[in-house]
Amino acid sequence: MNEIIALLQRKNLVWHAKGEKPINDVTPSGYTAFDDKLQGGLPNIGVVEVRTPIGIGELRLLLPNIMRQAQDRLTVFIQPPGFINAEHMQNQGFNLNNILIVFPNSVKEALWAAEQCLKSGACSAVLFWCQSLEVHQVRRFQVAAEAGNCVHFLLKDEKANALSLPVPLTIQLSPHSCGIEVSIPKRRGGYPLPEFTVDMSFQWPALTLAPSSNNILSFPAAKAV
Amino acid sequence: MTLWLYLHFPVLQLDTLYSAQQDQPIIIVEAKKNAIVQFNKAAAVHGVKLGMGLGTASSLCDDLHVHPYQAAVEKEKLLEIAHWLYLKTSDISFFEPNGILLRVSNMLTLYDGLDNYWQALKVHLTLLKIHFYYATAYSPLAAQLLAQSGFNQVIDNKKTLLNAIKQHSLVKTTLPSKTIEKLNRTGVRNLKELLNIPLAEIAKRFDISLVNFVGRLTGNFQHPVNYYTPPVQFKRCLQLLFDIENAQWLERPLNLLLNKLESFLTLGDKVTHEIIITLHQRDTPDVDLTISSARGDSAAKKWLKLSSLTLESIKIEAPVHSITLCASRVVARHIAEVDLFSGYQGNTSPLELLSILQAKLGKQAIKGLAITEDARPELSSQFCEPLSNAINLSLKGKLRPSLLLPTPQRLTDKVSVIQGPERIATGWWDGQPIVRDYFIARSKQGRWLWIFKDQKKGWFLHGAFS
Predict the structure, then answer these.
(1) Could B398 and A91 be called an inter-chain contact, meaning their C-beta atoms sit closer than 8 Å?
(2) Domain ranges of chain B
(3) How far is CA B368 from the centre of its chain?
(4) Which of A1, A159, B230, B406 is the most exposed place for a label (fewest CB within 10 A)?
(5) Whole-structure pTM value
(6) Is the CB of B369 less than 8 angstroms away from the CB of A96?
(7) What CATH superfamily is the domain B1-24+63-230?
(8) Which of B:271-330 have CB within 8 Å of A?
(9) Which of B401, B416, B448 lies nearest to residue A216, judging by beta carbons?
(10) Distance CA B441, CA B424 (A)
């Protein structure tokens, strides 16, 4: 019996409430505050649920991490809410030849494509924008991601479904003037974390507001200038 | 020594023309030189000769049909002839624009003698209804020379052949006119006199190209030739014992065909990039399904997987009574090198994954990203053929949003401008000019937007810094 427990512990499948051991299979996200809270970074394998509005900096938070994991494998974007901009991806250091963008015709096809990419082993990350998912679909994604050694980011609207999904990590994002506000409602091997701010002013000086400045011009005023 | 047979087609382009009336004089004129290169019998009756100008020819004959000389047509016809001859003989080489060289020696065992071989070949060739001259010799050059002069004999007597060659003047050969002139000055006017000079003497007095020519003419030197190999094709039809109305049930008979394809491809160590499945339906037109694999596969299992993805999405309108399978792009197998130390490798390669996705979702659903030098944001970032291995320009440095809207939309949210403007005024040369001032803005909800103001002071949303 003890042997089984030892094995489970070694594989990080048992969580002891008293101690927070660092998880091995993680890659730093490039944002120190974020990495510290996540005990090292985002997982390399498995499903990560990201509840976020679009356009607050969610991709800027995730892409450095995806970039580090890529290692010449593919990064797949499935039904993104706009056209992925090649210039941005190149600025982030991606090899454009390793990017696939999939525009499926139906929800069913989108789910199928995501699973194929996950289990193929040819992809290092699959980003999937979706509205709502069933529990069994997420479970299939998790199995496929483990088979293909791949990380699966499920990006969805924060309101989409409050239902808890069987994922190892859920990240909730909300806008913040100096970067992005993150809370972690659910994670494997740790307590849920309340809101904390990831400061992006170093990486994205143009896309953050100085904490105490009053230099924001309201829209009509800007027009006048 | 190897025996060669040369076939010379003097009026190849004329033979490709379809003319209903035989008695119509037709000439083919090379436009650059303004010289007649080919003409038919009817034209010859009027006195038309080779090398004549178009003006002279038309003054000899009033209802002359004139066609321009096209080397491409002859080349195509030559390929067709070679393909046809391949059924009877193995080693075929092109002598463009209008000659074909055959290696005879290694066919003689099969046909039991030169005469039988030539009989078989001649009967086969006359079916094409083209004019040809022919000659055998112990070197490609000699065979060419004899055939072009209309020798029209298939013999293997060395002495006779050599005598026949010796009668020709130097002008008929492929030697450059400069060399011929040089030889004429030394009193050498025909091949007999040239061949009488020992090779060592020629080497001493003339340049190496003449030595090579003489060596190749006598067959003492190797004459390198490239042999024609016909393109590999696979086409099999399977008649079904009973009509099939359900697309899913087609997989079993299809598997039989795919197994045949696999054994065919394995024999030649080839793969195919595309197969075409034709479903012959009762009383309705045939349906062609094109299934492609980006990586190229030979295994029936892989092709069956890809075809079943396509079969899922089609609907059969009428019962299918037979299936035809055709492999269209057959190429040599390319072995993908996998480095043991290059990190994790999945069991599916990126190209395989791409084929699977394309088979199910359609080619238009999968895109790759490419960058162009255009300053217009919507043209700078473009979709391209996925996994194309293109070399992309490096245009680092500009702050650009990660998500772009397919087309700019009128700005409706209340936003505050944080940075800008960045003016982009370009595109005046191709009819899609833009003059826009781009700003980075933050909406009330905290979204970082890329907005622009056009010349008419309208505000538009173009992207988001996701």
Answers:
(1) yes
(2) 1-24+63-230, 234-332, 381-464
(3) 27
(4) A1
(5) 0.62
(6) yes
(7) Reverse transcriptase/Diguanylate cyclase domain (3.30.70.270)
(8) none
(9) B416
(10) 17
